[in-house]
Design goal:
single chain; 146 residues; mainly alpha; two-stranded parallel sheet; two-stranded antiparallel sheet
Length: 146
């Protein structure tokens, strides 16, 4: 018997538990790193934004690009609000539905945007709390000369 995905109204009521569920009828898995990113992201309240760098820092990682990849693959959007993640310089950046849609969603939450950048970033910036148990990330080997 093939199981089907639950209707969106029956998906877990909290975004934190949504980050740990399998997605779609193929039950594709979400990496532990992505799941940890989504859990951190679920802390960001409406009307605030965070950065890819701050999410990585909250995870105890320097893998800023990996955070970006996790946001791009977020199967729970907008429930887990990846549209609230911007670049460190305040640039809105990309979004699966397009940068225009991301800007529209942010504006609806009260974020002011001018020329593709969040106005007064420091006023709306949210620094997520560090994760208690960060996923293990692979580090590239470093070469040390003696």
């Amino acid at each position: 018997m093939k199981k089907t995905a639950r209707p969106s109204s029956r998906i877990s009521s909290t975004t934190k538990s949504a980050a740990t569920k399998s997605v779609g009828s193929d039950k594709s898995k979400i990496s532990s790193f992505s799941s940890a990113c989504y859990k951190i992201l679920s802390q960001v309240p409406r009307g605030k934004v965070t950065t890819y760098r701050l999410i990585a820092k909250a995870l105890g990682s320097r893998a800023v690009r990996a955070v970006g990849t996790a946001m791009a693959k977020n199967p729970f959007a907008p429930r887990i609000p990846c549209h609230r993640v911007v670049r460190s310089d305040g640039s809105v950046g990309e979004y699966n539905g397009g940068a225009e849609k991301k800007q529209l969603m942010l504006r609806r939450e009260g974020i002011q945007i001018n020329n593709g950048k969040v106005s007064d970033l420091s006023d709306v910036l949210f620094a997520p709390k560090p994760s208690k148990k960060a996923p293990k990330t692979r580090r590239a080997p470093t070469s040390k000369s003696r």
